[in-house]
């Protein structure tokens, strides 16, 4: 009589972690490109994600860890000046504990 055996294994197939952060936006209330927020692939862990935006003096003017919160080009209710701002994005991939940081610049244009 022959032997019978079985085995079960769970395999996670993960996409690459992709974050697209636009390099400019125009918060002029024309309905086009009025807010800024990076888009991401589904492999980013939504429970560990943070975006910070800094002015040219290094003051943090925007902070979000909720994907529905976008920067509208204001700080404390006042319009920010046209110019270049820095951002830092912290994230980790799903099913991993390795943390990552991405930095870049945004041009606020009117």
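^ Assign residues to that structure.
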């Amino acid at each position: 009589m022959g032997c019978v055996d079985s085995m079960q294994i769970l395999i996670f197939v993960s996409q690459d972690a992709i974050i697209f952060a636009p390099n400019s936006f125009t918060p002029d209330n024309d309905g086009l490109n009025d807010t800024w927020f990076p888009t991401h692939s589904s492999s980013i862990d939504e429970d560990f994600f943070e975006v910070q935006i800094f002015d040219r003096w290094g003051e943090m003017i925007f902070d979000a860890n909720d994907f529905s919160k976008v920067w509208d080009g204001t700080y404390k209710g006042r319009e920010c000046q046209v110019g270049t701002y820095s951002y830092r994005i912290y994230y980790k991939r799903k099913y991993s504990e390795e943390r990552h940081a991405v930095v870049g610049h945004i041009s606020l244009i009117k």
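Residues 45 and 96 are 9 Å apart (CA to CA).
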